[in-house]
Every structure is written in C-alpha cells, then in structure tokens.
Amino acid sequence: MGPLKDPDMETALVVDDERFFLTILGDFVRQRMNMRPLLAQDGTTALSLVDKESVDLVLLDIVMPGMDGLEVLRGIKDRRPSLPVIMVTASSVLDHAVSALREGADDFVRKPVDLDELALSITRALTKVRVAKLPQPKRDAGSNRRRAGRVRMRDRFPAQLQLREVTLIDISLSGALVEHTEPVRPGEIYRLSFPIEGHQVQVLARAIRAFASHRVTVAGGERQIVYRTGMEFVGVEKGAADLISAYIDRIVQQGAAIPLT
After folding, report:
1. Model-level pTM?
2. What is the pLDDT of residue 248?
3. What is the percent of the chain with per-residue pLDDT over 70, rounded to a whole number?
C-alpha cells in the first residue's frame, strides 16, 4: 500500500524482489521525482496493483524468482499497452534488456542504479506519454525550418550496427539514419556504435524504416544495393545522451543542422 494519493501526483509502481532496492527506489521516486510510490516484491502483486491502482509508470526488475520481469512486462502490456515501463537489471549482458525492449519496455537501467540516469529515463518516459495525449498542432513550412533537431554528418562517419559496417548519415537525440549494404530487418533492435569526440558511444536502436538508396560497383564488377535505414533510439544511457546532445548543439551552432521532415 502507498500513502494517500494527491490527485495531482503521479504514481510509480516499483517491482523488485530485494527489499533493499525496493526501499531505495521507493524513496527516490517520492523524494526526487515527486511521485507516489507503490511497492511490490513479486510479479503477482505487481499485476494486481496495475489492475487496481492508477499507475503512471513502472520500474521493473528483470531477474526475480517465480514470475520474472519479462513475464510481468507481458502482463502489464496486455492490460495497459501504453503504460511506460523501465526495466532494472543487475546483468551486464544486454540480452535481457534487448528482450525487454522487444516486449514493449520503454527503457532500461543497470544496477547499481545511477539515479541521475534513472531520473532522466523517467522524465523521458512520462514526457512521451504526456505529449501523446496533447492535440497535435498544424505545422507550416516556416515552423519546420526553425526545428533543427537533426544534424547531418559533414564527412563520412563510420559506425557499426551489430557486426555490420555502416555509415552514419544524420543523427538526432531520438534516432539516426544509417547507410549500409547488408539488409536489416525493420522492427528489430540493434546495437549501434559510433565515435563522438573521442568517445565510443553505444545505443540500442530499433530499425523503423529501410529503403534502397542507390547501387555501387564492388570488386568483380558486381552491382550492389546500398540501403538507408532510419533507427529509433530505444536504449540510451545518460553519458551517451550527453555526448550526442553536445555534438548536436555544436553542429547547430556551426550552421550545419537540417530540419526534421
């Protein structure tokens, strides 16, 4: 049970089988995020609270005895598909996080939890829900020109999409456009890695659209299709987000930004 709810206060359901982390995260969402915490140490209790309470966000541990986090996530999405869920994992392997993102999770953070990173993730998830509820204003060409959310890479910018060698064409805080010769599957989640300011940045990104751009001649005279694929970032840690943001700001200041279309 949580405290009596202020009608203007959003509610966060925290699910973790370890009482220590449950208490820490409950205190965090109450004191730092100004949200009402609901606490659950198992999946059954968590799903019951989703059914009974007005929950605005879920922090969900992946590895739990009995019903694990992925199973709880499926149950949440069956009940409330638009409810934002952020996975919390102690595993250093990204396989669990990728599986969760494929099942509909909004983001993930690793234990020990960086509270600044978690605050950023929660804010991003709640903002996405709030924006989706707003009426969409009509935009004219002038307003589009004023939005410089995406920047084009000025020179050839090598990157890696899983084990594929790709070229980064443009980038924003929410995604990127890559060019490649090996096909990718729209809807699949890939690890995208690229250098920024001397740092190697890694993000998880979902392929959302792909099209054949042109053909090139390779060794032996064979003509090969070059694809361009739009990638939507679905897992960005705070350090990577800060580097991407700083890079975009610098390019915008240099006048190399391109408008969103």
Report:
1. 0.63
2. 85
3. 86
Same domain, 120 and 155: no
Q: What is the number of other CB atoms lying within 10 angstroms of the CB of residue 19?
A: 10
Q: Does residue 141 lie in a domain region?
A: no
Nearest alpha-carbon partner for 195 in 118, 147, 129, 247: 247
Query: Is pLDDT larger for residue 50 or for residue 222?
Result: 50
Contact 187, 195 (CB under 8 A): no
Q: Are residues 157 and 70 both part of a single domain?
A: no
Span 137-178, pLDDT tens digits: 554 444 433 344 678 887 778 999 988 899 999 998 889 999
Pairing of strands 189-196, 85-89: unpaired
Report how many domains make up the chain: 2
Give the range of the structural domain holding residue 203, as residue numbers without chain letter.
Answer: 147-258
Segments in the chain forming alpha helices (H): 19-31, 43-52, 69-79, 95-102, 115-133, 141-146, 238-253
Mark whether 168 and 252 lie in a shared domain.
yes
* CATH label of the domain that carries residue 25: 3.40.50.2300
